Structures are given as C-alpha cells and as structure tokens.
Amino acid sequence: MVIVFDSSQSTFFFIGCIASLFLIIIILQKFVNRDQQYYAKRPITAFEQKMFTRLKTTFPQYHVLAQVAFSALITSNNFKVRNKFNRKVTDFVILNQELDVIAIVELDDPSHIGKEQEDALRDEMFHQAGYKVLRYTHIPSNRQLQKDIH
To answer: N or C end of the chain, less CB within 10 A?
Structure first.
C-alpha cells in the first residue's frame, strides 16, 4: 500500500509535525524545571531604565542607586513604625561624592493611579527623616531635573 500526499497535504503534515515537536518540548521543560523555585527578573522596568539613564546623564557627578530599600534610608526605635516601611523600596536615590543623599526620586507609572494617599504617606516618612522627595509621572528633561534637585 502506497500513501500519496499532494503538496497541500505535505505542508499540513510538516506543520503538524513541527507543532507536535514544540508541544513536546514545552511539556518536557515543565517536568525538567519542576523543582526550580527561583527565576531571574529585571531589577527595573523599561520606563525606570529610561529614568535611570536620564538621571545618570544629567548628574554625572553623582551616584544614582535604583530600587533602594526604605530600611537603608530610614529607621525608628519603634517596631510598629518600622513595620510601616518594611519591604518598601524607592525607585531612585541620588548621592553626592560623600555618599550623602541629595534626593529620592519616585517615578509614578499608571499603576500609581488611585494610590495617591499611600504615596503621600511614603513621602511623609522621608520628609520627616529630612529627605527631599521628587515624584514624576513622566521622564523629565535634564533642565527640569537640574532645577528640581538644586
């Protein structure tokens, strides 16, 4: 018995084989990586990356840190107060050559809509500690950054 395929059947057969191969690979990957608990992720978003670059080009004389824990910047003798900022991070911290904080920069993307009160409380923590906080919903110009920080 001879099976004869025309060209359209051959194409469908070939596509079916490739699709089956990809499905087998996906299934095998799930079983092979079953014990994997940790996955790499980018430390900052593409939007934050643009801001980081803008800060670095605007202030080459300063150090720009990204994703800094609140606990690296503020503390309290009261355990309940410390819990208010535990596990929180700020987007950027700008340091001078002596490693003193010049400003804290927050970049508010659309996920911050409706969180204005929460953001105000975060800012108040830093203000009480003596820090300058700048919030932006867009990437400011170099001129605007220089004006705001100096």
So the answer is: N
For residues 123 and 125, give the distance between their C-alpha atoms in angstroms, rounded to a whole number. Answer: 5
For 60, which DSSP code? T
Per DSSP (E only), the strands in 1-150 are: 63-69, 89-95, 101-107, 133-136
The first and second tokens of residue 149, run together, are 């920080």
Radius of gyration of the chain (CA): 26
Single-letter code of the amino acid located at 70: F
pLDDT of residue 124: 92
- pLDDT at residue number 140: 96
Indicate the SS3 state at residue 137.
Answer: coil
Q: Which of 31-45, 88-102, 108-122 has the highest mean pLDDT?
A: 88-102
Tokens of 5: 């395929």
